[in-house]
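Sample 1 of the test manifest.
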Amino acid sequence: MIKVRIPTPLRPLTKGQGEVETKAESVLDMIEALNTAHPGIKDRLCDDTGELRRFVNIYVNEEDIRFLKGKETSLKDGDEVSIVPAIAGGTPCRA
Amino acid sequence: MATMKALVCRECGKEYPTKAIHVCEMCFGPLEVKYSYEEIKKNISRKKIQDGPHSIWRYADLLPVEGPNFLGPHAGMTPLVRAKNLGAHLGLDELYIKNDTVNHPTLSFKDRVVAVAITRARELGFETIACASTGNLANSVAAHAAAAGMRCYVFIPGDLEAAKVLGNLIYKPNVIEIEGNYDDVNRLCSEIAGEHGWAFVNINIRPYYAEGSKTLAFETVEQLGWRTPDQAVIPMASGSLLTKIWKGLHEMKYVGLIDEVRTKINGAQAEGCSPISTAFKAGRDFFKPVKPKTIAKSLAIGNPADGYYALKATAESKGSMDMVSDDEVVEGIKLLAQTEGIFAETAGGVTIGVLQKLVKNGTIKKGDLTVAYITGNGLKTQEAVIDAVGRPVRIQPSLVAFEKTFKMGKNGGGDS
């Protein structure tokens, strides 16, 4: 099983759970599995084209998946995944 | 004051109440404070600002707090130094240094953002304040928490400069050193913030905190006699400071304090951690995270949260970005010290190094009114220059010994 830590904004979808377990062989696979168990989660993580949203960071065993193989990063039993929103500020206002 | 209308998602536009939240729960986009500019416009004037306190709070109308109980009452209004010597050296007619090495109370621009963050945190009823930091932020949070009587947790990477570690401990917050770099600290804190009801200034308080950086734009414009510079050179870590200076300049126009913004915004990074500058040079609007390796530790954020927005702001302003090596950082620190008498930390060396590059390659021109933002104090990063400044000349306490040394040309001060 893969342990997935769920950030606060997604917890309404996991009945308040901060951590869930799932079976998956890749990050992509994990997102599908999470979506089956907790419908709606995929739309929150991915945009219309299926790409991860710009402000979503995913870490496998503390490593940013952008240093690994992105969504194709493979997962194995016992891996721990964190989903963490990027902390950005903002830009020029438009009055 | 009380001109905040809501928090609004930068990506999808969904609105939220002005509470301690920072991420849109629909699309994960960052939340930003939305103001009633029409109301602010009716209340604000150059005179009202000039009659206000000698601190960032003279611009309270454009800051995300309700007031009037401001914490950090002395932050800001640092000198805008006319840098004639450095200007002459570089070939610039009108160069200014915005000197936040002397910000109150902890000698970096972070005193601005923390004053705003802690004021807002108190307004929202928090008793514990925390942060993830590359050093300067932690120092400022710890000092402000001590003065405000709040509980404090600061999280720092394990490889910080000694003065920045001591600069936390002296205020007796809980200092947690993480075995890893800033990006590790940041990720961990994002997870901790979800579990504890603390005010994490740069996480759940970030929409308010980040707004404090706008005061660097406000002060520059006021100190220049209500005009914007032609060029600004700004160091980038998360990219937030650059983004907010750009925003601040435009806000002054929206509320009628100035007629036009003519500033080109230029971003500066160190080669060992330049995800934003690298993306800019490659013409990309997205960046690739890096593992930082530079002496400019205060800028060592490999996964810069505001990188995307910094790229956008720079492009909109028709500005530029560049990066310098660690050796150039040290040279930049020395150059600023030896021409203007201002001792900057490594981030300042990055700014001066990039300024020099942009003048050399013609991006910044001789007649451009230029402001370089120096955001932290050199006494906090002494390790970076200790091997590059020579040693004192040591003599016996006798006139003969002095005259002998003096005649030999060794009149002190190291390697001159």
